[in-house]
Amino acid sequence: MAVYFDHRVDAPQPSGFPCQVAWHTTHPLLGVASFSASAGGAVDLYLQQGEHAESCHVERPCRPTALRWHPLKALLALGWEGGELGLLCHPSGEHSVLPATHTASITLLEWSSSGSRLVTGDQAGVLAVWRLDARGRLQGNQVVKHSYNHLLSCCIFRPPPPGEDVALLARAAVGGDERALDKFNWRKDGKGTALKMGPQEGLLCYVSTADGKVHSVDERGKTSVLLSLEAPVQKLFYLGRREALAVVTEGLTLSQYALGPEGGAQELMKVKLSSQSGQNTDIVWTENGLLVTATGEQIIRLWDLERDDNHVLSLDESLGFERGELINCVSYCSGKELLAAGTNLGRVAMWRMVPQPGSSRNEAKVQWKLQTPTEVEGNVIQLQWGSTLNLLAANTLSTVLILSEHVMSAHYGQQVAAVQLSPTQLSVSRFSATEPLALRCDAHIKGVCVTQDSVTVWSGKQVTVYQLTGSDLSNAGSFQCESRVLAVHGESVYTVEPNRVQVRTQQGTVKQLLPFTEAEGNPVLLSVCHDFLAVGTDTAHIKVFDLTRREAKAHCGAKNLCEQISLLGALRSVRCNASGSHVSVLITLVNGRPDHKVHFYDVDMDTVTHFDFFTGRPHSGLSQPDDADRHPAQATELTGRCPVSHFWDESETRLFACETVPVGAESAASCWLDTADVTVATFFCTQEHGLLLQDSFPKPAGLQGLLALQAPHYYFTCKLLFRRSGAFLPEPGERDPDPAEAPSPALALPPPQAPAPAPQTPHMVTRRALRDFVGLENCEKATRDAMLNFSFFLTVGDMDEAFKSIKLIKSVAVWENMARMCVKNRRLDVARVCLGNMGSGRAARALREAGAEPELEAQVAVLAVQLGMLEDAEKLYKACQRYDLLNKFYQACGQWQLAVQMAETHDRIHLRATYYSYAKHLEAMGDKNLALTYYEKSDTHRFEVPRMLQDDTTSLAVYVNKMKDKNIYKWWAQYLESQTDMDSALRYYELAQDFLSLVRVHCYLGNIQKASEIANATGNRAASYHLARQYEGHDEIKQAVHFYTRAQAYNNAIRLCKENGLDDQLMNLALLSNPEDMMEAACYYEEKGTHMDRAVVLYHKAGHVSKALELAFATQQFSALQLIAEDLNEASDPALLARCSDFFIKHSQYEKAVELLVAAKKYHDALQLCLDHSLTITEQLAESMTLSKDSAELPDDERRDLLQRVADCCMRQGNYHLATKKYTQAGNKLKAMRALLKSGDTEKIVFFAGLSRQKEIYIMAGNYLQSLDWRKDPEIMKNIIGFYTKGRALDLLAGFYQVCAQEEIDDFRNYEKALGALTEAYKCLSKAKGHDSEQQDARLRELQHKITLIRSFIQARRLYEEEPGEAVRLCEALLEEPDVDPAVRVGDLYALLVEHHIQQGSFQEAYRRVEQLQKALPSLTLSSYISQPSLDALQRATGLALGRGGPERRDSGGEEDEVEEDEALDPHQDR
After folding, report:
1. What pLDDT digit, counting tens, does each position of 372-391 carry?
2. pTM
């Protein structure tokens, strides 16, 4: 809980009325501009508490119009009505006037982010940009000047693009952060990326003018129009996350524009903000994307621009605001997440942002909680937060107030408590009296300390002691002292100063000094408990003093906690117990965050231990190992938390209490801890047993915080509801029900019309009994000590000592209270003893029956219910997750809404039962409308609602017609039928589609024809059956059979057919019925001796195949035999199958006979039958004759032989694929390959060869592929080479290479590739291991000779370009070789010679060579060897006619075929 100290600024006299205020962003400096007609204008600077900085005063005869602080330095820019600009520096008071640039009133002052630029603008539209150096001194005249001819209203700088923060990186690098070091050393080892640093500040700004335009001014001073709006601009905001510009016009139209990298703007959205017209508007923009507006109404409006959401905040009269109070201005503090608003009645309203459960501040689920208002004088027209101290300045036209937050002081001691109500007022409560006392001081109260006889307050500079006698407070002494902390014991006042504690009298006289060495540090913390004083120093030393004697004496030496606690930064709080044996300490870590632990210093043992609230467990040496097991639920509640305050009992040395909040909330200001989830934990702390958890519970709603602990009570401070006209009220619902502590009726809030009451002081401290003392708050000391001992030993687990401590107690109330302790400690054994002493047989029986539950918590919950501890029972059921029992508990407590909610969320298996029970409860309470709803949810409304409304037939009829439910229609129709209203009953039976009842009623009414129509139309079986019975009773057999058939009651229809000789209908009905009816009908036909075919069919359909076959053979029913044989399979009798097969063979139905033989496992007979009658073996038949390897029907040899015969048969029939499959299954892969070769399926041949991996199969596959057109398919050629290679048939591979070489020569004249192929052939043949070595040597010699000839020809063609004569000589030499062809074609040799002679002009010699060629090859076509242009040239030169035969077919392939052949031969060339 906090108050705001209001410091009025100490304005110099004479001074005008304040018109503007401006806070520095970091320094506690406030600039105030004032003006009066007589004194003119002035600007003054004030400090934190309103002190005037006398040197910082500037006066001018005109009005000051603009103030703006430098973002970093204590430098204030001033703008005046006459156009003058100045810079005022603090603390020197130096005032420098900027060169005259403006002639009109200054309307605009704006600094860049680091203060190197200052933008100024005036009412005439003149804009100037000034440059300042690092010291804040002006550098010459303005650097940019523009004139827009319209009033300048707003200016904002665009932030620079994000880059690395060099300062943060430098700190991290010094701290050893490798990533940061790599950023600075990015060239190391050639790794990493360069450090990206954006500009230090953004110099691009946007300026708005009164004509509705927004101009952009870049770093070079160039300006351009960015936007043109319909109305003047009132505010500009920059949305960093979206990189967008938000604009609010004077007509309150909000627009957002996306800013492009080239400087353009694109509209994102446009919306009209709702507000009261004709009022001044105050608009605030927050960093988290909220736009807040105050327009002189009773509300303020918030728009979330990040999430496109909006909501409204209003004042609450119950918190002290008045009806019709208007909000003038707003200001937001991001550090405190506070929104402040000033009203016309002199109040400052504050809303705090509180995240909703399960969300964070960055999410939309936040709540704004209105706080207690702060009252000031006058009409608040301007509010502004500022400085790092989060100070608030309020301008009330007459003066300026600086509001600084202060945590309300409170203290308890010796049954006296004091709580601060306002900066200068205290509420002092004596629990022995009924009314609290009010204490008003002259100075602001910064601390208070109370004893049984005195109240001591101090303001930080002065200490005042008030004597408390009866109901009066009198000033006992006052003295000046600037001690930061203070403590009181008896008539001694303890203050601190460097390196010592002063013991003073109430008048301030120092009567003793308690020195501390320089190593021990300066005392900063004081705490008195009973007769001991604990002192904490700034060097983390603690020391305890004994105050029982006239002078304070050291109880122990100074303990240095830095040696015991790692990462200790500073002490937060120090307290000792009533005997001075233990000291509890809260600390702050070196990183500035509060520690999650409470540390305990044992003075006698000189040891330091702790309890960690983050893990929920103590130091390993503090408690018994099973402590957490005895308190599992409480231990869970204490995890993930942080302590914020701690207290020792003032008389019981073992009892310790601590307030905790969830981790993350501890960093919030203590004044806002009322919004956090605060838990109070109580411990027993002893030297023998360490720290033992005694109890934990959430802080009661409506209470501010724990103030003290003194058995049998906790003492809590109350939240302050509001302060109005000197009257203070706590929040409702927080008061203790004890009438002695209830506020007097005079403190009730008066009606608005009533005059304000006289100032009253409420009870601001309330007492709550400890768990073990509920009902025993006023017990005597002996009982209190016995209860504490019992609780302690029960917590320890020492039952003997626990019972020994209470053996003399006879009070039932005490035994009941001890039973309540057993609920907290889960000690059911002790609880049974307590229940026995209480004489509560019902509770004992319930506890015994609860033993069947497997969870201990569920059993303890039953005990809690019997003792009336309903909240504990609820927590226990939740802890063990027994939501079914919790549901029953809620129902038993009458908390039906919670029961329904529990069933809907966790206990859905009992959801309908819960709905039903709630509906029964509502019916009993007379709420039939709501009961009807829950009967419907429980799905029991079809019978429960008619039952509930049966006495109100009118309402029931309305409900029936409203629900349109078939079941309800049927119930209503039955009711009407019972009332003999047959017409209405028929109508509702028809709505219910209850055709049986319709037919039944029509038959009852004698309208059997109508009943027949209904039965035929609907086909309802029950209706048809009922109608058939009616017709049978009237001897209408055909109609009866018909409706029995529609009802599928075939046995009844068959019975009637047999009895009445309806044989034709009997067959159809029997086929529709079950096998038993079929057998019965078949026997009927057989006995009758007629329609034997029907008997055979029925026996067959009924599953008696053998009987059907016997009867078919006996009566020669061949058609029936065929039908029966179709259903025979392997499971049938082999003899029966053989008999049927013989029958089909006799009648030449061989296919069916084969199938039956296979089913009878006579595979050889079936195969022979196929061969004898040339039956095609299908794949299905072949598979049926294929047995698995592990089959026991045939030996493996016979199985293989059978597969061979099947495959042979398939080969004869040309089914090569199936033959291949069967040969493979028989293990004969060679035959399988031969069959596959006959199929011609190249793809499967290649696959099978690769799969079989046998030499012979590889060779067979290669031979087959060589027979294909391998010249056009390189893949085939590749497979040929691969198969011959894998099959080690190198001689065949050599032959294939020879063929390839000849193809290259004949088709493409490509001797180079031919040479490569022959070379490969030679290599393969030389590696081959043939049987005839002479023949192999001959082939090798032949190959070598061919290679030599081809190589010579290739050499000749290559030499021709350089040495034509040598090439001609080589060709002529080759022509002399006797066997040059086919190694080198003669035509190619002559062609080379002819081409040579033509080029040389020797046409006669060329013609001679042509004649020799024609003589050597008479059937030659010359154009096949010699190019046509050469032939034409020769013909022209000689004048002789030459043959011009067309090109041969093998040369017509063109380049594309040649390329394909080249690619085909690439594999051997690479070899």
Report:
1. 788 888 889 999 999 888 89
2. 0.55
